[in-house]
Structure formats: structure tokens, C-alpha cells
């Protein structure tokens, strides 16, 4: 239903009476009277998909939990609702590769791809979940049963659609609501433990019990923490900021005086906060409300010495003799436990909450024209289609060796046969190019003239794209310039390919740079999303992108202010 992103209207809160009716319908349809909505506030909006229209219901955090078609009676829970309530739907099991290669492309689940046994509730017309047999409790897709599945004792050689798909994890519904949720890690099956105990196998059942119980306790703790972080009290925010100030004054080796108030807050206080959501913990959310009041409070307490008037303040001195600072116990502000402040601490606080591993890019090459003939004459598999530079280099060396093309007097020189000659000199108009060339100079023109480059980005060992993208890896572009009226802004674009959401980036830069942000599009063709922040913040933005795992070499920074200064000084 959502193979393409649906068009949705603005969300509105559902009336309590309507929410109760909806809950009653959900319970009646699923047969689960214990089911309840994840939040007290339920929102709704209309959607228009490629082939249907209907209504989506979300929780208070705008995460879709149920949806229905306008002219249909069935309510469909999303995979997110199924994760919150295991057992909400009867589940059809399938193989892991079927989930990834078929269902994630929007294909229906065929009978031959299912795994026995079937839940007796899986009758035609029943809404069901689909999960991998390796993680049977983690629903990855939702659909409607098309066959009387419990009647089948075997699916080998059988044909027909078992489940018609209506929703799956990475579909348009997830994208349009910007849900970036990872499937939960399935816990040990408690039912298996109980059965084992009843059968008298207490000794063998103790081992799963010892593994499952701590895991469940840990999950509950994490949930409790998440609930607390969603609603900080005013005194909690004040305490976080106070501890960040203590940390800055005692542990931050990058603090240099004098320093402006805005730089002190954005580059030190915010970076030295514990691992909390900066949207919930910042000066604006505190009892001080303003940076000037925050700093003047600690000047009055004897921690800081300030200069300036009104909101234009500069920190010119600190007092490390305060008992609170001498007795301060530092805490971890990043994954490595470092206490250097500045850039290292920002890696934790300004990146995703679980930290972001360094991204890496792999370049692959697809042969065209004569290169396909070259592949056929090597040990490379023609079915692979894409090859790494090292694979092609090894194949070239093997080809040279098997055809005795190396110069007998100097092995570093190669005599090009007709195939290699045309591959290397394909784009040269000079037909008198030498046949005897250095071995080291062959691979570069060979790749440039006869292969189309592709790239794949990896986050850890996980690829960002399902298939490698054609072309070379584009750079994120950052431009600092002066607009009309001598207003300095910094623009960031071409970040979408790294799966960076423009709304999240704008919110983070608004906090990190202490400046207003806007979201728009570039003036180029094709157009790209662009985030603009007030002020000259190129280095700060690069630091933030580094914290997301993006290397500096993938970022192109153009500071047009420096160019103007040089031109004016001549």
C-alpha cells in the first residue's frame, strides 16, 4: 500500500470518545482485550497513497500505530505497534532472505516462501504479521491472509499468495512520518522456559532463565530512563547545566579565556552535558531562560568573572578554588570516557544518542563494452557485475602473466596486446601510442575508460543503500557567505545521501550554532535540500558532521568571506 511515500495532511488530536471507540475496535479485531495505546494522546490524519486513501493514527510522538482504508473495515497495526505488543497479531514465519529481498520490495508473501507450522488463526481475511523464522517475535511486515494456511501440512511445490502485503518496515509510511526505529532485539522465549520446567528439565531450563531475566530487567530500566528524559523537571535541567559548568571549569582543557558568552555555551557547556537530549536540556529550558542570566547567576556565586553589559557578555576569569569545583567528580561525556571537552565530547552529545560509527565508502566498477571481453578472459565471475579496484588490479596482473606480456628485461614494463592497447588508449586520438608501458600506469586509464564507477557507503558493516549508487561519492557542501544587508549565513547541502534528515540537522545546528535555521532547496539543477544557519559556523558544522561519522574529506567547505577580505586587501 505504501510502496511510494503517501501524501499526508497535518495531524490533529483525536477526541477522547473517538479514541476509546478506536481502542475498542482494535481490541475486538485482534481479540486482545489487554491491548492499549502507547500514549494517552492519539492523533489522526488522512493519507493518499498510490492506490488508496484512508486514515493514519499516531501516538503523541507522531509515530504511526494504526491505519485503515476509507472504504474498508479492517484496521491495520503498524510494525511499530506490533513491536510494542508482541502477540498482537498471529504471525506467518518466512526465511530471512525472503523478508529482505522480497517483502522489503513490496512483494506479496507466496505460499512456497512460508515456514510451517501455521497459527490456527491464520484464516483468509485475517490481518497478520510476517516475521523471519530467526526472530519470530519481531514483526517486519503486516498483511492480510489469502489462503486457509492451517490446512496445509506442506508448502513444498505449492503455489499461491499466502499473505497480501499492506505495510512493511522501510516503506513510504515510515519515511513520510520520519520514523527511524530499529527492530527490537528478541528476548529469550519465556514460554519455552516454563515448558522445560514443567517437564522436569529444571537444570537445562536454568540457563535460559539466567540469560532472559537480566535482559528483561535491562530493557525495563532503559524504558524507565526514556520516560524520565521525555519530561525533565525545571530543577533537573538546572542541575544538568550546573554540572556541565563544573565540568567545563575543571576538566575542559580547550577552554581559553577570554571567551564570548555564546561560544562558552555552544562550544563548552552544551558539549560537556551528560548524554541527554539537548532539545530537552538547554539554557532556554532552564529557570534562567537566557544565557546572560545563567552566567550572571554563577558570577554572583563566585565561579565566573564577567565583562560587558546586557546580553553582550565575555567571560574573563574563573575561580577554581570554589569547594564545589574542588570536590567535583567528573562523569563520562562520550563513549571513550574522555574529558577533553570540545570536539571529542560533542561526538556523543551532538550525534545520535547511541553514537555513530565512522562511515566508509567502497568504490565499485561496472564493465562496459571491451571491458566485458576482458572480464571473460580473467578468473573474475561475469555474474558479479561490480568489482573492486583491487580485484581488477589482480585480474590485470593475472592476465599479463598468463599471456606473457611482461618485458623479459624489465618486469615493471608491459607489452600491450591488442585488447589492452585499446582498453588503455580508448580515449586517445593518437594512434601511435607506445606498446611498451609501465605496469603501474595501466590500471588508472583502464578503469577510467572502460568502467562505470559506483559507490556504497557503510556504517560499521551495514550498507546505507540496498544497491550501490552510480557515480562517484558526492561531497557535502558548506558555504559561508554574506547576504544583502551584510548578513552572514552558512548553507549546508547534499547531506541527504548520508541519511541525514533536514529537520534533525536544522534543529541540531540551531542548538550547536546558537543561531536561527531555515530549510529550503538549492538553486542548482537537480535541486537538493539545504539548511541555512545564521552566522559563520563552518568549523562547528564540520565538527558535528564528523560526530555523525562523516570524514572531513567528504566535506567541501567554501568560506567566501575570506576571499572577499583578500580581494579587498590588494
Automatic annotation (TrEMBL):
The residue ranges of the DM2 domain are 363-449
- UniProt GO MF annotations: translation initiation factor activity
Q: Which InterPro entries match?
A: EIF2D (IPR039757), eIF2D_SUI1 (IPR039759), Pre-PUA (IPR041366), PUA-like_sf (IPR015947), PUA_eIF2d-like (IPR048248), SUI1 (IPR001950), SUI1_dom_sf (IPR036877), SWIB_eIF2D (IPR058886)
Q: Any coiled-coil ranges, and where?
A: none
* Ranges annotated as biased composition (Acidic residues): 188-201
Segment Disordered: which positions?
Answer: 183-218, 327-358
GO BP terms, alphabetized:
formation of translation preinitiation complex
This protein's superkingdom? Eukaryota
Please note every region of biased composition (Low complexity).
202-216, 334-348
Instruction: Tell me where in this chain the SUI1 domain is found.
Output: 476-549
Name any one Pfam family assigned in the record: Pre-PUA
Name the protein family: Belongs to the eIF2D family.
Q: What is this protein called?
A: SUI1 domain-containing protein
Taxonomic source organism: Zygosaccharomyces rouxii
Amino acid at each position: 500500500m505504501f510502496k511510494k511515500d503517501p501524501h499526508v495532511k497535518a495531524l490533529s488530536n483525536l477526541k477522547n470518545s473517538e479514541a476509546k471507540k478506536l481502542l475498542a475496535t482494535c481490541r475486538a479485531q485482534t481479540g486482545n482485550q489487554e491491548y492499549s495505546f502507547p500514549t494517552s494522546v492519539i492523533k489522526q490524519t488522512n493519507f493518499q497513497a498510490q492506490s488508496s486513501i484512508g486514515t493514519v493514527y499516531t501516538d503523541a510522538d507522531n509515530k504511526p500505530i494504526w491505519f485503515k482504508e476509507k472504504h474498508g473495515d479492517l484496521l491495520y497495526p503498524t510494525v511499530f505497534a506490533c513491536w510494542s505488543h508482541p502477540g498482537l497479531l498471529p504471525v506467518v514465519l518466512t526465511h530471512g532472505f525472503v523478508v529482505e529481498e522480497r517483502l522489503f520490495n513490496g512483494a506479496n508473501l507466496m505460499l512456497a516462501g512460508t515456514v510451517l507450522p501455521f497459527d490456527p488463526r491464520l484464516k483468509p481475511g485475517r490481518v497478520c504479521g510476517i516475521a523471519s523464522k530467526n526472530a519470530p517475535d519481531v514483526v517486519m511486515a503486516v498483511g492480510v491472509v489469502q489462503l486457509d494456511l492451517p490446512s496445509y501440512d506442506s508448502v513444498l511445490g505449492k503455489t499461491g499468495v499466502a499473505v497480501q502485503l499492506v505495510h512493511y518496515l522501510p516503506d513510504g509510511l515510515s519515511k513520510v512520518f520520519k520514523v527511524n526505529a530499529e527492530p527490537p532485539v528478541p528476548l529469550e522465549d519465556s514460554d519455552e522456559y516454563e515448558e522445560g520446567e514443567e517437564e522436569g528439565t529444571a537444570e537445562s531450563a536454568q540457563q535460559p532463565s539466567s540469560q532472559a531475566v537480566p535482559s528483561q530487567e535491562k530493557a525495563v530500566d532503559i524504558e524507565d530512563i526514556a520516560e524520565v528524559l521525555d519530561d525533565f523537571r525545571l530543577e533537573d535541567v538546572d542541575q544538568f547545566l550546573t554540572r556541565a559548568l563544573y565540568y567545563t571549569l575543571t576538566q575542559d582543557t580547550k577552554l581559553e579565556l577570554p571567551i564570548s558568552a555564546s561560544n562558552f555555551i555552544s562550544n563548552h557547556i552544551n558539549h560537556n552535558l551528560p548524554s541527554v537530549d539537548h532539545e530537552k536540556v538547554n539554557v532556554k529550558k532552564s529557570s534562567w531562560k537566557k544565557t546572560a542570566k545563567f552566567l550572571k547567576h554563577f558570577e554572583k556565586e563566585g565561579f565566573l568573572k564577567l565583562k560587558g553589559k546586557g546580553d553582550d557578555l565575555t567571560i574573563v576569569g574563573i575561580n577554581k578554588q570554589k569547594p564545589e569545583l574542588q570536590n567535583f567528580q567528573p562523569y563520562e561525556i562520550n563513549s571513550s570516557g574522555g574529558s577533553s571537552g570540545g570536539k571529542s565530547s560533542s561526538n556523543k552529545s551532538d550525534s545520535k544518542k547511541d553514537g555513530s560509527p565512522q562511515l566508509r565508502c567502497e568504490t565499485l566498477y561496472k564493465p562496459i563494452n571491451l571491458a566485458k571481453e576482458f572480464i571473460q578472459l580473467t578468473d573474475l565471475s561475469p555474474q558479479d557485475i561490480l568489482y573492486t579496484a583491487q580485484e581488477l588490479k589482480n585480474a590485470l596482473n593475472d592476465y599479463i602473466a598468463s599471456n606473457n606480456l611482461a618485458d623479459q628485461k624489465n618486469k615493471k614494463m608491459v607489452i600491450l596486446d591488442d585488447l589492452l592497447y585499446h582498453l588503455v588508449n580508448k580515449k586517445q586520438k593518437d594512434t601511435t601510442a607506445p606498446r611498451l608501458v609501465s605496469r603501474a600506469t595501466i590500471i588508472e586509464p583502464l578503469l577510467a575508460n572502460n568502467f562505470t564507477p559506483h559507490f556504497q557507503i557503510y556504517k560499521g558493516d551495514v550498507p546505507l543503500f540496498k544497491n550501490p549508487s552510480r557515480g562517484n561519492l558526492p561531497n557535502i557542501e558548506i558555504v559561508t557567505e554574506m547576504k544583502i544587508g551584510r548578513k552572514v549565513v552558512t548553507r549546508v547541502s547534499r547531506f541527504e545521501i548520508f541519511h541525514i534528515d533536514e529537520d534533525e540537522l536544522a534543529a541540531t545546528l540551531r542548538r550547536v550554532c546558537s543561531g536561527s535555521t531555515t530549510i529550503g532547496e538549492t538553486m542548482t539543477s537537480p535541486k537538493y535540500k539545504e539548511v541555512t544557519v545564521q552566522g559563520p559556523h563552518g568549523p562547528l558544522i564540520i565538527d558535528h558532521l564528523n560526530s555523525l561519522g562523516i570524514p572531513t574529506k567528504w566535506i567541501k567547505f567554501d568560506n567566501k568571506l575570506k576571499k572577499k577580505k583578500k580581494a579587498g586587501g590588494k
